[in-house]
Amino acid sequence: MVIDLISATRYAEVDFWRKSALGQSLARFADDSRLVTHIAYENSLGLPTIYNQHIEQRAQQAQSDISLFIHDDIWLDDIFWVDRLIDGLKKYDVVGLAGNKRRVKNQPAWCFVQDAKTGQIRRDQIEFLSGSIAHGMAPNGIITRLGASDAECELIDGLFIAASNRRLAETELYFDPRFAFHFYDLDFCRAARRKKLRIGTWPISVTHQSEGGFGSDSWYQSYKTYLQKWGD
């Protein structure tokens, strides 16, 4: 079993391995022959562009079994994460760490919904959420528990998206380059569900350094594009 790990970073190559959470984490797994890293250094392109280049390459050259699309500000806390990921993709076609079991109209993020009466954005009800993620600048951060993992979901967080290369090729599933840094995950999940792929969360321990860019100008523009594409 071979796992391609794909990430994009603003760091130069040397700095990525020395300074980024992902680079420092991967150094701990340097002796794991199942891992092949594909890092876009000094990157200024949208994540879907980087991710799609890899998907297209693997569609032509089936040299690996799994593709993991992951942010560069992730600490891989779990020393068994490779084994756990392989197990997760035996059950689901697409695996994430946190997600939502439902999708509702005009949903602004995988974990948030918009109140139909007030228009206010709030976290969705706990019974619909799944997974756990830690946050912090250092490894083993403060844990946010959303719900039990190993749950089938409609939407998952884009910080960690893994998929079977066979299923990606069979369904010709790609990321939409219109969503450079926001909503690419929701869009990808909706496209995957439309193609009848199963999406689920899996228990893998990580710490995310960022809280995301929710509510920024670029986020609102992507939200508008997302609603224009899907209609809700």
Return the structural class. Answer: alpha/beta
Low-confidence stretches: none
Provide the CATH architecture: Alpha-Beta Complex
Number of helical runs?
Answer: 7
Task: Work out the count of structural domains.
Answer: 1
| Secondary-structure element pattern, one letter each | EHHEHEEHEEEEEEEEHHEEH
Give the total of beta strands. 14
Largest sheet: 6 strands, mixed
Termini distance? 39 Å
CATH topology: Spore Coat Polysaccharide Biosynthesis Protein SpsA, Chain A
Helix content range:
25-40%
Instruction: Assign an overall shape.
Output: globular
Description:
The protein has 232 residues and is α/β, with parallel strands linked by helices. It has a single domain, classed as Spore Coat Polysaccharide Biosynthesis Protein SpsA, Chain A, CATH 3.90.550. The chain is built from seven helices and 14 strands. It has helices at 13-19, 21-27, 47-60, 81-91, 165-171, 184-194, 217-230; strands at 3-8, 35-40, 66-70, 74-76, 94-96, 98-100, 112-114, 121-123, 129-135, 142-147, 155-156, 160-164, 199-201, 206-208. Helix 1 packs across helix 2. The longest helix has 14 residues, at 47-60. The termini are far apart.
Give the structure's gist in a few sentences:
The chain is of the alpha/beta class and 232 residues long. The chain is built from seven helices and 14 strands. It comes from Sapientia aquatica.
SSE blueprint and pairings:
Layout: E1 3-8, H1 13-19, H2 21-27, E2 35-40, H3 47-60, E3 66-70, E4 74-76, H4 81-91, E5 94-96, E6 98-100, E7 112-114, E8 121-123, E9 129-135, E10 142-147, E11 155-156, E12 160-164, H5 165-171, H6 184-194, E13 199-201, E14 206-208, H7 217-230
